[in-house]
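Dear H.,

Thanks for agreeing to be a second pair of eyes. The structure we're designing against is below in token form, covering all 454 positions.
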């Protein structure tokens, strides 16, 4: 490495955990990210890579020079470490919560006055209502798993403990059924094959929806044979085929057809019954999402009269919009995904909330048009990880609500957007955090901002 300017071997004590699960310690002003070193642990490490742009290095342990941290636990999943997911699984759950809070403190800085404790998941296991599997070819047939980090190799993830148990059970059947039907695993490099991904959703009653993501070259008879076998599982409510010939890594497309049974599961969201199909966004942790929505509603409607006009921007299937309407507000919900908007409209009608919810398919920036120019007392935004677009931020500021409640899965973008909202006169309250993804660095954050009167 021509740009290597520091010793290749040095001793490091980790003080915090990065998103990849590496312990980070300081070495003369340089941050050294060390694989399998937990905060509090010390080791002699060998530098493998140095950033040419920033004072950051990545290293492997050559010898441990301290006892293992008391918070170190054996990871629960067979593929932990290899599959690239759940990079914090080797840290005890209470320590994960503390590390998530520390991550928020570090990333949000002075954009919020304080960061509260992270509301824990009732259990760190079996919480995910959706499993996503990459399909690969193994020595003994198809493999259902995940790409190993920075590789096209598929690591089997059957036995994953973070998905609802029914998802793992159905995934094992899908693998057998697809194998027996002779479906050919898609090869990313050769861009050929039939079965690319399998997505399995589970509802609260233990029912499952199986989505087989295939190329347009997939043989219909083989696909049908696999679907027939999968539909025989007692938990499977439907099998859907989704065609995906894309080269950009996106798993989900809008091109779906039902092969067997139902095309959607039924979920209770904000007290209403919502159909969840193959493509719609749904928070992966049902119980924690419910707790989060309840808090968002309390913050958004605090001090507002019954019947206040509010907006839910980036509404998804409307978990927040439905809960706001049930609490008495009149809600404009904006969401880019038309299938989600249609499902939200049907759910609102079935729950007797149609009068209180206007669901609009469109970009977040079209807020004013969606609200038909009505004045909004509060706006909830729950954007994807990259945060608000400049146009969406401008639309929120132009609507000039007294209260903005920001729900974020990406703390970096949250910090940026909070600073922009502060520049527009909004004062941020404390950050409140919810753990919807134990075993990972992910944390869902809620911040209520108020525009002082006058
Ligand atoms: C983090 S999810 C939040 C969904 C919902 N609030 C919930 O809790 O289930 C973000 C949502 O924003 C939608 N979305 C992404 N970009 C958008 C845009 N430019 N305008 C409107 N919605 C968008 C996505 O389809 C997704 O449903």
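And this is the sequence the design step returned. I haven't edited it by hand at all.
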């Amino acid at each position: 490495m021509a740009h290597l300017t520091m010793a290749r071997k040095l001793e490091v004590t980790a003080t915090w955990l990065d998103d990849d699960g590496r312990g980070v310690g300081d070495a003369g002003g340089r941050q050294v990210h060390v694989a399998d070193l937990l905060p509090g642990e010390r080791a002699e490490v060998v530098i493998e890579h140095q950033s040419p742009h920033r004072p950051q290095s990545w290293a492997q342990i050559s010898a441990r020079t301290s006892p293992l941290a008391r918070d170190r636990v054996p990871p629960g999943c067979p593929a932990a470490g290899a599959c690239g997911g759940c990079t914090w699984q080797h840290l005890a759950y209470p320590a994960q919560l503390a590390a998530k809070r520390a991550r928020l403190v570090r990333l949000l800085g002075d954009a919020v006055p304080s960061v509260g404790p992270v509301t824990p998941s009732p259990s760190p296991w079996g919480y995910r209502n959706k499993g996503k599997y990459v399909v690969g070819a193994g020595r003994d047939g198809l493999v259902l798993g995940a790409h190993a980090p920075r590789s096209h190799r598929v690591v089997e993830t059957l036995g994953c403990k973070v998905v609802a148990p029914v998802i793992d059970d159905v995934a094992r059947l899908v693998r057998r059924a697809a194998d027996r039907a002779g479906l050919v695993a898609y090869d990313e490099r050769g861009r050929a094959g039939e079965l690319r991904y399998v997505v399995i959703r589970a509802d609260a009653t233990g029912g499952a929806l199986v989505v087989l993501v295939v190329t347009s070259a997939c043989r219909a008879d083989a696909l049908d044979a696999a679907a027939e076998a999968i539909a025989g599982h007692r938990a499977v409510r439907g099998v859907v085929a989704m065609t995906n010939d894309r080269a950009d890594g996106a798993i989900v497309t809008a091109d779906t057809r039902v092969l067997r049974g139902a095309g959607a599961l039924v979920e209770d969201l904000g007290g209403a019954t919502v159909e969840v199909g193959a493509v719609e966004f749904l928070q992966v942790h049902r119980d924690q999402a419910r707790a989060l929505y309840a808090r968002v509603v309390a913050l958004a409607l605090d001090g507002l009269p019954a019947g206040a006009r509010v907006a839910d921007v980036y509404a998804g299937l409307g978990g927040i919009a439905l809960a706001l309407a049930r609490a008495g507000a009149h809600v404009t919900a904006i969401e880019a995904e038309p299938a989600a908007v249609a499902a939200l409209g049907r759910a609102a009608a079935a729950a007797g909330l149609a009068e209180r919810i206007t669901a609009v398919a469109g970009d977040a920036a079209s807020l004013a048009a969606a609200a038909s120019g009505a004045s909004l007392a509060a706006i909830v935004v729950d954007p994807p990880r990259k945060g608000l677009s400049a146009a969406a931020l401008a639309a929120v500021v132009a609507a000039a609500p007294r209260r903005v409640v920001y729900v974020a899965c990406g703390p970096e973008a949250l910090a940026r957007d909070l600073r922009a909202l502060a520049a527009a006169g909004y004062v941020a309250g404390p950050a409140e955090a919810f753990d919807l993804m134990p075993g990972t660095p992910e944390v869902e954050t809620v911040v209520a901002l108020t525009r002082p009167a006058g």
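Two observations from my side: The mean pLDDT is 95. The two ends are 59 Å apart (CA to CA).

Warmly,
E.
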